[in-house]
Write a structure and sequence with these properties.
- The protein has about 700 residues and is of the alpha+beta class.
- It is built from 15 helices and 35 strands.
- The strands form 10 sheets. Strands 14-15-18-21-22-23-24-25 form an 8-stranded parallel beta barrel. Strands 26-27-30-35-32-33 form a 6-stranded antiparallel β-sheet, with helices on one face. The protein has a 5-stranded antiparallel β-sheet with strand order 4-3-7-13-10, with no helix packed on it.
- Helix 8 links the parallel strand 21 and strand 22.
- Helix 9 packs across helix 10 and helix 13 packs parallel to helix 14.
- The longest helix is centred in the last third of the chain and has 20 residues.
- It is elongated, with a radius of gyration of 27 Å.
């Protein structure tokens, strides 16, 4: 077969209707072979004939979609100098748009021999390696458009593609746990009722099953082990691995967009699945180890690791930055996704050693006309020194607000000295985001996420129960800020069960009525439990999957979640675009009158009240007549006014409704102690209202 010169751009395999252009970067390579793999495993090799600007390239006529391929890179192999080329290893294309198969962790995948790590391993890895696949770029998007939901109107639902639908009885069995299953009408209708506007998917880039987990009969369920930054994970496809996974993913996006929902991807650009110096050679390591990875200064045989996974990508190398930016643009322009949540995002800012908010990566994102216009969410920490960076990302970014999670949990479990910080979290965390010009929408508020307890387990367990992970429960966070209500785990004690249900409603109400962007963990609205496992990263089974058979017994919680979500959606006073004007550690109250805080006695909160370490009850007035921001058409926003009475104390509390200037009469909108509020009497200014222990009473001003 004749090989033409082709072009150095675009990188990867690009089908043009008549043939395919192949291009791969390697500064260290002396020769690069393109390997075409037939269905029976027969391999045909072609030398890439041209190299321009460190990109090796060639064009093969009559090679089209479905063709499996890989690269073999000839070059220096001197691990002590950070060089690890070995043509015996079939390598994935870093720009592969689809990947077929899986690895079996055979010794041939490694650059060394298991019994002698210092001896080079020249066993051929092709039979044990995943294969890159040429895809067709063509797809009928119909009239698909990005919903572009404003942040202040966004409600995020964090979900796992497989775990969300694996047990759903109304989804055909053959598509459960797949992209098609997530896009099934019954799933979309469930999300619509919850008021979800964006589905944040846990990793769907092609990932690898960790060797140590496979040996223990477990799997990498979460997927934070990427090997293909352009390829949708093939195991989530119900239709095939030779490019069909790309079409199925696009179809899922199109259906969610049709329902008005955005798709946000949880992406892992901080490391790859190749791990440490003892890991396999699958792609980047064999192509150009020194260019792709941060190596230890003075000891380039080993990898600098700020992620806890064995390696870290070299964020100051231009081709690594190009890879990441090309990947982000591809998912927006070709796959139509609407945003990204960056795992361990602090590591992306480590251009040198320290976390640098002005690093090259952020510069590139800021100026990119495509990536800068989608939702950008940081997980603002990593495991390196100085990695906890909540509140420190650039203005274009939003952040998972870990301080919101911690403070809200502490408040509702009755911890002392939490009121001032709780007030700041409820009002958008101005203390974290206001100084650098950001707005409340910079705070992605959450109480639970995939990493940690579910909402049900947060109120059912004091301690983690991770025995199924096989690590003697040494894994996972030990300080969960959880409270079991007096009994560890499942119980038939009706008093404990009632308290737990009330606590769930407290967390959901707080989450949806806080300024900022709420994020709900999949299944929390259904009472999903992981049996106390707070680190189910390796549990691809009923421990992690959403149990839809429990939906009927938890319908009241689902209905309540829908109600609170609707309350937020219908009332802009709960989703302001701008901060309140006062001191955030005193509830942001100012002379503007848009917010006011009261003690249970109905008196304004004083400085002493805010410093009161034992108080656990307070009230907040949200003035719908004083929203100091216009609509998109420049018109004033006028809404109802609300009074939130919050009692985290272990006993009932008599609250006095504030004086008449805030409202003469108030009606009950919801009560987390008794969710059915029909025929509840209205409350009048100056009169006492009983708020039950550990509950929230939400009142709306009538006059």
């Amino acid at each position: 077969m004749e090989m033409w010169p082709g072009t150095a751009y675009p990188l990867g395999a690009t089908f043009d209707g008549a043939g395919t252009n192949f291009a791969v970067f390697s500064e260290v390579a002396e020769r690069v072979e393109l390997c075409l793999i037939d269905t029976d495993g027969t391999e045909t090799r072609h030398d890439l004939p041209e190299v321009d600007a460190l990109v090796w390239h060639g064009y093969l006529p009559r090679i089209g979609p479905g063709q499996r391929y890989g690269f073999r890179v000839h070059g220096p192999y001197e691990p002590a100098r950070g060089q690890r080329c070995n043509p015996a290893k079939l390598l994935l294309d870093p720009y592969a748009k689809a990947i077929e198969g899986s690895t079996d962790w055979d010794e041939s995948l490694f650059g060394y021999h298991f019994d002698d790590p210092d001896r080079r391993n020249d066993l051929d890895s092709a039979a044990h390696m995943m294969k890159s696949v040429v895809i067709s770029p063509f797809f009928d998007w119909q009239n698909d458009r990005h919903p572009r939901t404003p942040y202040h109107a966004t409600v995020i639902y964090e979900a796992h593609v497989k775990g969300l639908t694996m047990t759903h009885p109304d989804i055909p069995e053959e598509i459960r746990g797949t992209y098609a299953g997530l896009a099934h009408p019954v799933m979309i209708e469930h999300l619509r009722k919850l008021g979800i506007t964006a589905v944040e998917l846990m990793p769907v880039h092609q990932f690898v099953q960790d060797h140590h987990l496979v040996e223990r009969g477990l799997t990498n369920y979460w997927g934070y082990n990427t090997i293909g930054f352009f390829a949708p994970h093939s195991a989530y496809s119900s239709s095939g691995e030779r490019g069909q996974q790309v079409l199925e993913f696009k179809s899922m996006v199109r259906e969610l967009h049709e329902a008005g929902m955005e798709v946000i991807l949880d992406v892992v650009y901080n490391h790859t699945a190749e791990g440490s110096n003892m890991g396999p050679t699958m792609s980047f390591r064999g192509i150009d180890n020194q260019a792709y990875y941060r190596l230890v200064d003075g000891d380039p045989e080993h990898y600098y690791d700020t992620t806890g996974t064995g390696n870290t990508l070299l964020m100051r190398h231009p081709h690594v930055l190009q890879l990441i930016m090309d990947s982000l643009r591809y998912w927006v322009t070709e796959m139509h996704v609407d945003g990204f949540r960056f795992d361990l995002a602090s590591s992306l800012a480590r251009q040198f050693h320290e976390v640098d908010r002005l690093s090259a990566f952020f510069d590139l994102v800021q100026q990119d006309p495509i990536v800068s216009q989608v939702k950008l969410i940081a997980e603002p920490w990593d495991v390196g020194d100085g990695g906890y960076q909540v509140g420190n990302f650039p203005p274009l970014w939003t952040e998972w607000n870990g301080q919101y999670r911690d403070t809200v949990r502490d408040f509702w479990r009755g911890e002392s000295a939490t009121m001032a910080e709780f007030a700041s979290r409820l009002t958008g965390s101005a203390d974290l985001y206001q100084e650098d010009g950001r707005r409340p929408i910079a705070s992605i508020n959450f109480v639970t996420a995939h990493d940690g307890f579910t909402l049900n387990d947060l109120v059912s367990y004091n301690n983690k129960h991770n025995e199924a992970n096989g690590e003697d429960s040494a894994d996972g966070e030990s300080h969960n800020r959880s409270w079991n209500g007096g009994f560890e785990g499942e119980t038939g004690d009706l008093e404990v069960v009632s308290l737990r249900e009330r606590q769930k409603r407290n967390f959901i109400t707080t989450l949806f009525l806080s300024q900022g962007v709420p994020m709900l963990l999949h299944g929390d609205e259904l009472g999903r439990t992981q049996g106390g496992n707070n680190n189910a990263y390796c549990q691809d089974n009923e421990i992690s999957w959403v149990d839809w058979s429990a939906a009927r017994e938890n319908f009241a919680l689902t209905d309540f979640t829908e109600l609170i979500s609707r309350l937020r959606r219908e009332h802009p006073v709960f989703r302001r675009r701008r901060f309140f004007q006062g001191d955030p550690m005193r509830g942001s109250e100012s002379e503007i009158g848009d917010i006011a805080w009261f003690t249970p006695s109905g008196q304004h909160m004083s400085g002493e009240d805010w410093r009161n370490g034992y108080a656990k009850s307070l009230a907040v007035f949200l003035n719908g007549d004083a929203i100091a921001e216009p609509t998109t058409r420049g018109e004033p926003i006028v809404d109802d006014s609300f009074l939130l009475l919050l009692n985290a104390h272990h006993e009932d509390m008599a609250f006095t409704v504030p004086k008449e200037i805030y409202g003469e009469r108030w009606e009950v909108v919801t009560d987390t102690a008794a969710p059915i509020v029909e025929d509840r009497p209205s409350a009048k200014a100056g009169e006492p209202v009983t708020v039950e222990a550990r509950s929230i009473l939400v009142l709306r001003r009538v006059v």
